[in-house]
Design goal:
Elements (H helix, E strand, L loop, with lengths): L5 H17 L2 H7 L6 E9 L8 H17 L5 E7 L9 E7 L2 H12 L14 E14 L2 E15 L7 H19 L5 E9 L6 E8 L2 H14 L8 H4 L2 E17 L1
Antiparallel strand pairs: 1-3, 1-4, 2-3, 2-8, 4-6, 5-7, 5-8, 6-7
Helix pairs in contact: 1-5, 1-6
């Protein structure tokens, strides 16, 4: 589940303001509808560099569990990623899986933890490890597996006094319409807007995620997002009151996965 620049997000926010002012509230609600909750468990790991070559072996073992859970409907997606832009305290790798319930996440977690130690990430002697449980009501994907795709994660922090509908406003009026176009033309394979389902940090985290099958897709998606605000005079001020931009971070990952 980071450095997509401020200008990208403020461009998005400006378009959201225009959309809200130009479209009646009743019409807005019908354009993009909130979907049933999709929960995601993200296990972040910081492995010593000398063990990076062994991560694929662990992933292969985990994937047998994930594939079975995808087939029987327990999961709707799963994957393994390697971080492309390293930070001092950030993860080197992650493993994630998604379900329509927290129970589905926990059933898979129990199976992963029951693996023999030799087949567990713990055997790689991680320097650090932490987990996140996220939830999304705005998402879509193309079914099937993917290999070597690029995963972009832009994380923001809402201010404590942000309105309750801040995430839904941004998602319905800006993120989803843009991402649906990119999904339709094949630029991206999946997108989602996540918040924390289990708060392991201060409330208010918002993550915008999209998966591109080719490196060119990173540029195309970024250009599409920036282009939204090109002719818009309202670049962000209306949203500045509830977004703490000092907490903005990006991640660029590369990984393999599948969606049901």
């Amino acid at each position: 589940m980071n450095t997509r620049h401020w200008s990208v997000f403020t461009g998005l926010c400006g378009v959201a303001v225009l959309a809200l002012s130009a479209v009646p509230s009743g019409a807005q609600a019908t354009e993009v509808k909130e979907k049933p909750a999709m929960y995601s468990y993200i296990a972040d790991w910081q492995f010593p560099r000398e063990r990076w070559g062994d991560v694929a072996k662990i992933n292969a073992t985990d994937n047998t569990i994930f594939q079975a859970a995808l087939s029987d409907g327990t999961l709707v997606g799963y994957g393994n990623d390697a971080n492309m832009v390293h930070t001092v305290d950030g993860e080197s790798h992650d493993t994630w899986w998604s379900s329509t319930s927290i129970a589905g996440l926990l059933k898979v977690l129990d199976k992963l933890r029951a693996l023999d130690n030799a087949d567990s990430p713990i055997s790689l002697n991680p320097t650090k490890h932490w987990d996140l449980v996220l939830v999304s009501h705005y998402y879509n994907w193309k079914p099937g597996p993917y290999t070597g795709a690029y995963i972009n994660v832009a994380m923001y922090q809402l201010k404590p006094d942000a309105p309750d509908d801040a995430v839904s406003t941004l998602s319905k009026n800006v993120v989803v319409p843009t991402m649906e176009k990119l999904l339709a033309d094949g630029t991206i394979l999946e997108y989602e807007v996540d918040t924390e389902a289990i708060h392991t940090d201060a409330p208010g985290l918002v993550a915008i995620v999209y998966v591109t099958p080719q490196p060119e897709g990173v540029d195309t998606a970024r250009a599409a997002i920036r282009g939204l605000g090109k002719d818009n005079p309202l670049i962000g001020p209306a949203f500045d009151s509830f977004i703490d931009y000092s907490q903005h971070r990006d991640e660029l990952l590369k990984g393999n996965g599948a969606y049901k």
